[in-house]
Structure formats: C-alpha cells, structure tokens
Amino acid sequence: MTIDDAKGYLRERWPSIRVEGTYQPQPVKRVEIPKPDGGVRKLGVPCVVDRLIQQARTARLPPGTLCPSGSSPSAMLLHCRSYSYVVDLDLERFFDRVNHDSLMARVAARVSDKRALKLIRAFLNGGVMEGGLVRPVKLNPVEPPW
Hints:
A hairpin with a 5-residue loop joins β1 and β2 (about 40-45). The protein is built from six helices and four strands; from the N terminus they run αββαααααββ. With about 150 residues, it is of the alpha+beta class. The mean pLDDT is about 80.
C-alpha cells in the first residue's frame, strides 16, 4: 500500500478504529541490512498503515516520554536540558530481549489511556514476516535494569 492509499484507508476507517480500539498491527517485514564489518543487521519494517499509526501515537505521548525523532542535534540538546540523565543507545534486538511486561509497566506509569496501552502491546506482539512466512516474535527476555 502506498502512502496515498494509506491516507485514504485511514481517513475512511480511522473513526471506527479509534472508537472501537480494535486495530491489529500487521507483522513487521524482516529485512537484512549489510554491516560495514561483514554480517547483517536484522530490521523489522512495519507496513505503511502501522507506521502512520505509530507516528500518530508517538505524537500523543506525554512530553518527555520520547525525544523527537529526526531532530537536529541542537534541538535534541534543547529537549534534553530538563533531564538529569540522557541515554543514547543502539536498540539492536531491544524489543526481542526486553521483558514486555516490565516494559509495559513502565509505559503504563506515564500513559493512562488503556486503548493506547493495548495498541502498544499489540505492536510488541505483532509478529514477524520472514521469507514470506509469518511467525510470532521469539523473545529472549532479559530483565531491564530498572
């Protein structure tokens, strides 16, 4: 589906999706990106509708929940000035390893909208399409340090 098709799709269906809270994300498409040192990095690419919904949802999270993506370094520094600590890290395999229950508990401490929490959980459990086959996400949970 193209971006233009997705916009039309969401214009037509968003009111019922929003009210009913029944949207089910599609599995992410697994792609492999070559690393400069050899090997590959596996990425999950969401379908265009899922990506648009993710962006819309991120825009509605409470301030300070996430830094703005795609911001210039100076804008990021201004955004982060109000925090005691700022962490920058590579999220490779983060969502495959983090305990989803612990993560959702942390998100729920800042987000009270139950439908939003349900949607975030659905994205975490959305599955992966690899080689044309859909499979559930295999977790190798590691307890977060918090």
